[in-house]
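Consortium newsletter contribution from the modelling node. Members have asked for a concrete example of what our holo predictions look like. Here is one, prepared for the pyridoxal-5'-phosphate complex that several groups have been discussing at recent meetings.
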Amino acid sequence: MIVRTAAAIVRQRCPTTASSAAAATSISSSTTRAALATSVPLLPFSAPSSRQQSSAAAATEDDGSGFIGSSKDNQGYSIAGSFREGRAAYLDVSSTTPLDPRVLDAMIPYMIGSYGNPHSRTHSYGWESESAVEVSRAKVAALIGASPKEIIFTSGATESNNMSIKGAARFYGKGGKKKHIITTQTEHKCVLDSCRAMESEGYEVTYLPVQVATGMVDLEELEAAMREDTMLVSIMAVNNEIGTRQPVEEIGDMCRKRKIKFHTDAAQMLGKLPIDVNAMNIDLMSLSSHKVYGPKGIGALYVRRRPRVRLEALFSGGGQERGLRSGTLSPALCAGFGAACELAGDEMSIDRDWVDFLSDKLVKGIEERIPEVSRNGHPEHRYPGCVNFSFAYVEGESLLMALKNVAVSSGSACTSASLEPSYVLRALGVDDELAHGSLRFGVGRFTTEAEVDFLLDLLEEHVGRLREMSPLWEMVQEGIDLKSIQWSQDAHHH
Ligand code: PLP
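And here is the predicted structure:
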């Protein structure tokens, strides 16, 4: 057992490389585990002072980084000027979190020594693995106030969302009487695409709009959308782009009264805010391990037993996980997810204090140091670790390029050829131009204050620099109201 206070581990970055090296040499000695918990972080984040030194050096010479750009030609800004040694500051925890070293400790025995198939009933190897799976199931259940029998292990929230929507729709829609599903326009892609798939199978889906700016569901609109043939409402708990927390308690209550099944995607809420499936009247809930410092590749689906919720399984096979999810479970991943849930439960208030402190610093820093910014999402009804800002008069892709040394997410689906702005921000009423200049920042258990300071310095510098190059910004500075301008014939569309 690692005897370690949470406060000591908070603010320490995850020593992933040290862990795997240690794992290769010795998997069970307590010295190794102690080393894991206290080892020097191997993902160095250079303090801002060293960054300034390297910028100064880079400004005068080619540092071989390949990011020389225009400075070589003496034409002004060069990205080399802000390139530095070490890894980028990680401010993207809504996308994924580093593995907590204590979670790795819990996993290692099931990767090497205890390798039995947890579904093997005839020998001790199987029993040992099965026991690890069941202990983990109980830990996941405890974090959400459920019974272990209600937890189905899956590969992650994407699979759980697919299972819930397709599985419930196919089961309850069998007779042809219940063919209506309600969701919102700001759900994760996997929910929206699962709903689309059901539309092609003859189901009808209402994609509810959300309230302007806050992203909250309007309960009256939800009520108005509920019909005799509505079988499922799927509304996420916390939005992954803007952090808005939906009123799941009220939604659960409305659904229960009408005997409509309520599914919530709680990938961004698990371990961060308290969840009680009974108090919230949740019937189906999707969970993901890698958002709570657990391993990637595992998650769970909570499936209520009383009143019983039925699903049609997506996979055919050995009938594992109560017949709902065939396939051999990974005891190591289960053990990791269980340990991550246990830690999240034990340390929720410590994590919360740290996340509150950092996100406060980040939000205030942006608002005080950079003019013309707007924060997206609900100001109070939110998870504070997910912060989304629009920077007016800034071209988002250029800002992202300039922020090479910080890992953040952009507000646009920049993989698409059309550079389509985020559909979530669009649903909030953010215009396309502003949505392009939007970034999501995530802070969590292992984020350091130095990373936030570093981000703030870079943001101030580069938002300012990019605006200096913007004719629109110049006009705004001259006091011209851009809305009053009659642009000639939409010229930029040609
Ligand atoms: N739902 C939400 C709200 C998410 O943020 C994510 C993460 O990307 C997912 C679902 C998908 O989760 P997973 O990566 O576990 O499939």
